[in-house]
Amino acid sequence: MSVELVLTILSRDHPGIVEALADTIAAHSGNWIDSSMARLGGEFAGILRVSAPKENIEGLVDALKGLSKRDIEVTVHRDRTAPPQGGHKVRLSLTGLDHPGIVLEVSRVLTGFDANIVELHTESFTGSMGGEAMFSANAQIILPETLDTDELRNALERIAHDIMVDIELEETAG
Q1: Per the domain annotation, does 38 fall within a domain?
Q2: Strand order of the sheet with strand 116-126?
Q3: Alpha-carbon distance 35 to 37, whole Å?
Q4: Count of domains in the chain?
Q5: Which of 54, 78, 102 is a domain's end point?
Q6: pLDDT, tens digit (0-9, with 9 covering 90-100), for 82-125
Q7: Which of 33, 49, 78 is the endpoint of a domain?
Q8: Which domain holds residue 47?
Q9: What is the pLDDT of residue 129?
Q10: Is 62 among the domain residues?
Q11: Which of 9, 31, 57, 158 has the fewest CB atoms within 10 Å, i.e. is most exposed?
Q12: Does residue 83 sit within a domain?
């Protein structure tokens, strides 16, 4: 029987982090299932889901924690797989001038509608024309079955002007 683990990884960015993780997982007959990793500032951060035979879990966990000797901090959680959340999926895209509070205001509206953000990617970048700081966000969101997408769209459009961003919300398949 396999056991699934969810790992969070944080390390000063340097070559070999992914290889060290993959080697440790493979050495314990583990399987790399899915992950999301990126360099943020000078740090390398990630989240990773793995599985391994039940009898190898203790050794795998010990070996992953031992990576701290290589400046790779790994936190291990048992996967608490929940049944798929009901509702319909939407994709939110946002772009505007960068300033504090954008994520707060948008997430506050989403929470008010009981929407669940299941994936979020954000980025600050320099605008091409004037060189001003820009911000973009892309999110996958699950809305309650009873929520009309237009109702959420209208609420987001009401705050878009105040926080100086363009927001698009579109239904996705699945």
Answers
A1: yes
A2: 116-126, 133-143, 88-97, 165-171
A3: 6
A4: 2
A5: 78
A6: 666 788 999 999 999 999 999 999 999 999 999 999 999 999 99
A7: 78
A8: 2-78
A9: 74
A10: yes
A11: 158
A12: no
**Residue 36 CB-density burial (10 A; 0-12 exposed, 13-18 middle, 19+ buried):** exposed
Task: Classify 19 as helix, strand or coil.
Answer: helix
CA distances from 147 to 10, 61, 126, 154 (A): 37, 42, 36, 12
**130: pLDDT strictly greater than 90:** no
In a domain, 128, yes or no: yes
Pair of tokens at residue 106: 């948008």
Token pair, residue 117, equals: 């953000």
- Helix residue ranges, H only, 67-136: 102-112
Sign of CA dihedral 151, 152, 156, 159: positive
Q: How many angstroms separate the CA atoms of 30 and 141, rounded?
A: 30
pTM: 0.83
Look up residue 21 and give its DSSP letter.
H
Instruction: Note the helical H segments in the chain.
Output: 17-27, 57-66, 102-112, 149-162
Distance between CA atoms of residues 19 and 72, nearest Å = 12
Q: What is the pLDDT of residue 72?
A: 98
pLDDT tens per residue, range 31-87: 999 999 999 999 999 999 999 999 999 999 999 999 999 999 999 999 776 666 788
